[in-house]
Specification:
By secondary structure, the chain is α+β, with helices and mostly antiparallel strands. The chain is 29% helix and 28% strand. It has an eight-stranded mixed β-sheet with strand order 19-14-13-22-23-34-33-30, with helices on both faces. It has a six-stranded mixed β-sheet with strand order 3-2-1-4-11-12, with helices on both faces. Strands 6-5-9-10 form a four-stranded parallel β-sheet. Helix 11 crosses helix 12. The longest helix is centred in the first third of the chain and has 29 residues.
Length: 654
């Protein structure tokens, strides 16, 4: 049995496959210890036999956002102790006169400069004073340090000094993160920041993973990475920086794979959960970035390019000091949750959908979770009087404000990067996505929305469809033109390491694919473009540069700054059979009820449908509400839905 688990702010989602049998399960997350919900779900699903778990975790992300990581120390060259505090000169809020940088994850008292220097060619200019390192051990012990980050100049060229430091500090018996292992590239600030983050989150991640492993016995545990692939639990404990945003990455992978099956390879993914919304633009391939940051700290490992906003089903609505209606980013989470969950005291987006009739209480979570509709009236009446609107206007206003925030997020990844949203299909998932996607598509002039089966657990489905991926990089700084064969030889050490690592992950050698890339730029430029490595890589670079920046300079010298290797292990993946269209008419067994639902302040009779009983070819004219275990889908009066061969609902905006 394979079990995939995605931990969210409100719900923890499961999808499992046992032979040819599939199953889904959701339960409320346990914010105080996310592992409790994970283990409770596994116990509910597994009655007997062996199983494998693939898990997307938010532990590393939350440790950084909440500043609750390990007490860490930084070991670097003398004079470079403050590099993580100085950083770069760019400010994220240019016109904020009171702008302050985030406090570094490691305080100045725990940043230590040591002797020893290696130059840009990898030559040792000054040896390390080993006696000073032995003396430093005592300081680290007195400071009760739980983890160490080591980032020395030019270690990507020659790691000798970093390895010496590790050997001497191993007697402390705490995790040690070496920059040449985490990120073997130039740019000291980004390399140091990425290594510091790894050191900061690894002990917490190790404790979390160990707790799960201890409770699942000798069954296998894999962890989703933010690059769209999974790795073993052992690797994730050592390189925890690679697991940041692992849940959203699973969703992007699932959307990409299911979108291809349905015949769509240009997608804007829209993942609306309980706490936040994640969006990504897929133009025939998964979008990777090396320019990510979390809480303002650079993370220069490959990640799927996902943009997040604080708008979800649990986002709290409030009136600001100027009397305007605002929604989020604060969320009611899983506990206390929205008002309708029974304990919450603040109106949320979920409450507004329920108030307007767009959520069906009897069918929420398959009818297994009670929604307290009667609790809503007092809260809506009170807030509507405060803002001077009717309760219905207030509920619709909350949804409009939330939709506007999500529309802006989609424009950031599309319009602001030169893409027309109208040329893409909106791929909607997440527990709350189906209630908002058609309205967003209309705002963005997008003609179609695709909503897969079980959209509330698509991130978990994506984990089941993901490759096992390992990313490697090396700064080479090739300023002169080299032949293809000469450049290809530079990949050899990384290829050997990649094959060794994937064999350790349990992948058969015949199922390993190695993809090679170059980071290229014109001489004199400060930043690079990632280019697939082939016989015509230079011409490819010119074309990509022109597409990205509007021009190319074929007369200028081209530099190869870094070489990259993406090693993919191809595990067995689930197959989804395609059905043939039968009839357009909806089967009578799929019709649950008809009830009034409010659209544009008017009550309209909407048909309530059971998604599990809809079949390929069925046409659904709005207004309609489609209910299923993991989500609710709203088809407004201005839209029409159709069931395709894979059970997806393709919504056309009229």
């Amino acid at each position: 049995m394979i079990i995939c688990v995605d931990t969210g702010g409100t719900f923890t989602d499961f999808i499992y496959k046992d032979g040819n049998e599939w199953g889904v399960y959701k339960l409320l997350s346990t914010p105080s210890n996310p592992a409790e919900a994970v283990l409770a779900g596994i116990r509910h699903i597994v009655k007997e036999g062996k199983f494998r778990v693939i898990h997307g975790s938010t532990v590393a992300t939350n440790a950084i956002l909440e500043k609750k990581g390990a007490r860490s120390a930084l070991i670097t060259n003398k004079g470079f102790e403050d590099i993580i505090e100085i950083g770069r000169q760019n400010r994220s809020e240019l016109y904020n006169l009171s702008y302050k940088k985030n406090e570094p994850l490691i305080s100045s008292k725990l940043r230590f400069g040591i002797s020893g220097r290696i130059n840009y060619e990898g030559t040792v200019l000054e040896e390390i004073d080993e006696q000073a390192l032995f003396e430093l051990i005592d300081k680290l012990q007195r400071a009760r340090v739980e983890s160490i980050a080591v980032s020395l100049l030019f270690s990507f060229k020659n790691p000798e000094h970093e390895l010496k430091v590790k050997k001497i500090f191993e007697k402390l018996d705490i995790p040690i993160s070496l920059s040449h292992e985490i990120l073997s590239e130039f740019r000291e600030y980004e390399r140091t920041s990425t290594t510091v983050i790894n050191a900061y989150v690894s002990p917490k991640m190790k404790k979390y993973i160990t707790y799960i492993k201890d409770n699942i016995g000798d069954n296998k545990l894999s962890i989703m990475q933010s690059n769209g692939g999974s790795i073993s639990a052992e690797t994730a404990m050592k390189e925890s920086v690679r697991t940041i945003l692992s849940g959203p990455a699973g969703g992007a992978v699932g959307a990409y794979e299911l979108g291809k099956m349905a015949g769509f390879d240009r997608l804007i993914t829209f993942d609306m959960g309980g706490t936040s919304t994640d969006v990504a633009l897929i133009d025939q391939s998964l979008p990777l970035t090396l320019e990510s940051s979390i809480a303002g700290f650079p993370v220069k490992v490959p990640m799927i390019d996902i943009h997040t906003v604080g708008a979800g089903g649990g986002s709290i609505a409030y009136i600001d000091a100027g009397g305007s209606l605002k929604v989020g980013p604060e969320s009611a989470g899983a506990d206390p949750g929205p008002i309708c969950y029974g304990k919450g005291e603040h109106i949320t987006v979920t409450d507004a959908n329920l108030f307007l009739g767009r959520l069906i209480p009897d069918n929420f979570l398959g009818g297994k979770m009670e929604l307290h509709v009667a609790r809503l009236n007092n809260y809506f009446n009170k807030m509507s009087q405060e803002i001077g609107l009717s309760p219905i206007e207030l509920a619709e206003g909350i949804l409009s404000v939330a939709n506007t925030a999500m529309e802006r997020a989609i424009r950031v990844i599309s319009v602001e990067r030169g893409f027309d949203p109208g040329e893409f299909v909106l791929f909607s998932f997440g527990g709350a996505g189906g209630m908002h996607a058609p309205f967003l598509a209309k705002l963005l002039n997008m003609p179609k929305v695709l909503i897969p089966k079980n959209p509330g657990i698509l991130s978990a489905i994506g984990m089941m469809m993901a490759d096992i991926i390992k990313d490697y990089s090396q700064t080479v700084m090739l300023k002169e033109k080299m032949e293809f064969a000469e450049i290809n030889k530079l990949f050899a050490p990384m290829e050997d390491r990649a094959i060794h690592d994937l064999l350790f992950e349990g992948i058969n050698k015949n199922n390993i694919v190695l993809d090679k890339y170059l980071d290229m730029r014109y001489q004199g430029q400060s930043y690079e473009i990632i280019v697939p490595f082939n016989q015509n890589h230079e011409e490819t670079f010119h074309k990509l540069h022109e597409k990205t920046y509007g021009y190319s300079s074929r007369d200028k010298l081209v530099e190869i700054v870094n070489i990259r290797l993406r090693a993919r292990g191809l595990p067995d993946k689930p197959q989804f059979p395609e059905s043939k269209p039968t009839k357009k008419d909806i089967p009578s067994g799929a019709i649950i009820d008809k009830k009034p639902v409010i659209f544009d302040s008017k009550k309209e009779q909407a048909i309530i449908l059971d998604r599990d009983k809809l079949i390929c070819g069925n046409l659904i004219k709005g207004p309609a509400i489609v209910v299923e275990y993991s989500s609710t889908i709203v088809i407004p009066p201005f839209a029409t839905g159709e069931i395709d061969g894979y059970g997806n609902i393709i919504i056309s905006i009229n």
